[in-house]
């Protein structure tokens, strides 16, 4: 009897688990960022040399010529007043992101983009370029050979271009010279910034942290922020606390939304989109006009004239389905099946969704990109 009872209980639990709806959960580290732990954008102006005649035209781009003269003068070469004709130099903008907690001597990737009329940066080398932050201070210095993803080839009567040959990248091309101080371990509290603002998600994150630690240390401040008070056992060691909680699984929530890209005809609908009872019809009116003129000629040796008699045929055809009924409170799958049943394309579906929204029958926000 005991074994039979245990078997029945196990079967009941298995049936309950199999029938339970599956929900997608995500780690807290995938749902939120730690406030203050962020990258910083850097920018600089420099010169790329070593181009095979594909650089800037110095007569057309004055800032390239001035930069080249200033660089040579710093090297002890005076070319003031001299005529410079070289197509192997290009003025570029160098951009990059300084990683969080980057220390002196570490390296970072940079992107190099041409500013003038250079045709290609292939084979070029970036000279020493200071990278500045928003405060005007130098945080890194970039230099190195460029890797170009595109190319350009041309002849007298044809030209072919693949990718963007005036844009390149230098892997580990910048050396960090200045650190940005951020004492994470000395903070009295830590704030989690949600990547997608939502009241329910913020509350679930706070509840998951409190349940795991066994004390109320997390509190949702607003739909975008969850504040964590450092418990006594983690004082001076906020990194250990974040390591413990960032792996917790939380089911995120989001409002019903439909995203439409009219340029490409892409439609993305969330799972919580619901529609009230509405009837939808879609049809295309096709008008066909064909001309088949007829020529009337007189009999041989007659005194008549050749006459062209017009013959026009006009046809009107309306393609489309009858009214389709979309019932109240249907799910996303039912909505998609109903719209597909009308036999319409994505662009016509965009108009139908906007019309349903205008009628007040769709319970979702429509965002047009």
Description of the structure:
One of its GO terms (molecular function) is structural molecule activity. Belongs to the FlgI family. It is found in: Periplasm; Bacterial flagellum basal body. The chain is of the alpha+beta class. The chain has three domains: 137 residues, no CATH class; 67 residues, 2-Layer Sandwich (Gyrase A, domain 2), CATH 3.30.1360; 77 residues, no CATH class. The protein is built from seven helices and 26 strands. The strands form nine sheets. The chain has a six-stranded antiparallel β-barrel. It has a four-stranded antiparallel beta sheet with strand order 2-12-14-13. Strands 17-16-26 form a three-stranded mixed beta sheet, with helices on one face. A hairpin with an 8-residue loop joins strand 4 and strand 5. The N terminus is likely disordered.
How would you classify the helix and strand content by structural class? alpha+beta
Main sheet overview: 6 strands, antiparallel, barrel
Q: Low-confidence parts lasting 5 or more residues at pLDDT below 50?
A: 1-22
Continuous helix count: 7
Q: Rg from C-alpha positions?
A: 34 Å
Number of strand segments: 26
Strands in their spatial order, largest beta sheet: 3-4-5-11-7-6
The end-to-end span amounts to 65 Å
């Amino acid at each position: 009897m005991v074994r039979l009872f245990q078997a029945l209980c196990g079967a009941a639990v298995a049936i309950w688990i199999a029938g339970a709806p599956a929900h997608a959960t995500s780690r807290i580290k995938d749902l939120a960022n730690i406030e203050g732990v962020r990258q910083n954008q850097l920018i600089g102006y420099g010169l790329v040399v070593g181009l095979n005649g594909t650089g800037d035209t110095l007569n057309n781009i004055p800032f390239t010529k001035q930069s080249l003269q200033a660089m040579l003068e710093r090297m002890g070469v005076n070319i003031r007043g001299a005529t410079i004709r070289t197509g192997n130099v290009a003025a570029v903008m160098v951009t990059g992101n300084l990683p969080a907690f980057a220390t002196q001597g570490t390296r970072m990737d940079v992107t190099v983009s041409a500013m003038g009329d250079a045709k290609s940066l292939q084979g070029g080398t970036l000279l020493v370029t200071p990278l500045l932050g928003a405060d005007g201070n130098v945080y890194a210095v970039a230099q190195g050979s460029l890797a170009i993803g595109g190319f350009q080839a041309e002849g007298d009567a044809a030209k072919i271009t693949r990718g963007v040959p005036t844009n390149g990248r230098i892997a580990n091309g910048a050396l960090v010279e200045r650190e940005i101080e951020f004492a994470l371990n000395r903070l009295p509290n830590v704030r989690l910034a949600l990547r997608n603002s939502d009241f329910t998600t913020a509350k679930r994150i706070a509840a998951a942290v409190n349940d795991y630690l066994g004390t109320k240390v997390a509190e949702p401040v607003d739909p975008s922020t969850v504040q964590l008070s450092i418990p006594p056992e983690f004082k001076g060691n906020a990194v250990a606390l974040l390591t413990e909680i960032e792996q917790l699984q939380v089911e995120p929530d989001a409002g019903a939304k439909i995203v439409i890209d009219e340029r490409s005809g892409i439609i993305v609908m969330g799972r919580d989109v619901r529609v009230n009872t509405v009837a939808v019809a879609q049809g295309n009116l096709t008008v066909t006009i064909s001309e088949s003129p007829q020529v009337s000629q007189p009999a041989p040796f007659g005194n008549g004239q050749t006459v062209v008699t017009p013959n026009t045929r006009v046809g009107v055809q309306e393609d489309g389905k009858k009214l389709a009924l979309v019932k109240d409170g249907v799910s996303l799958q039912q909505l998609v099946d109903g719209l597909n049943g009308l036999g319409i394309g994505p662009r016509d579906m965009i108009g139908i969704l906007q019309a349903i929204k205008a009628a007040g029958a769709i319970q979702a926000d429509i965002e047009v990109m």
